[in-house]
Amino acid sequence: MSDTLYAGGCLCGAVRYEARGEPSYMGYCFCGDCRKASGSGFIPFMSFPASIIRFKGDTLQYRRPAASGRISVRNSCPICAGLVFGGEVGISASFTVYAGSLDDARLFKPTMAIFTRDRADWALMPPGLKMFEGLPG
């Protein structure tokens, strides 16, 4: 296992995370929820198992039914409103970290794009990604 440190947090620094090791996957999500949550054409994301990631700071949680049928939990900073991660600390087996919150953006190396059927024409797709019209499966 790699000992790469993935660290980041919100705009004001009140919510922070550190993950040591490699993400399970990295990519772009073009679903409508991610577009609206980010205010952009997609969300760049990374997934980490709960065993290698730690969070600091209180978050504001937003819950909503996800495309999978489960409840999606997005965590943002209650001070600056920066969107940081998805999942529920102490409950979730893995967490989705929004790559825009990384301290070192060079660590993000996407390999996939999900919900490409929902991609807006103006949201450009980087070359070389494995594409899925919905969730991989």
What would CATH call the architecture?
Alpha-Beta Complex
What count of domains describes the coordinates? 1
Q: How do the helices and strands follow one another from N- to C-terminus?
A: EEEHEEEEEEEE
| Principal-axis shape | globular
Let me know the number of strands. 11
CATH topology: glutathione-dependent formaldehyde- activating enzyme (gfa)
Strand order of the largest sheet: 6-7-8-9-4-3-10-11
Strand content: 35-45%
Explain what the structure shows:
5% of the residues lie in helices and 38% in strands. The protein has a single domain, classed as glutathione-dependent formaldehyde- activating enzyme (gfa). The mean pLDDT is 95. It has one helix at residues 32-38, and strands at 5-9, 16-20, 25-29, 43-49, 53-56, 60-65, 71-76, 83-86, 94-98, 112-114, 130-131. It is globular and about 35 Å long. It has 137 residues and is mainly beta.
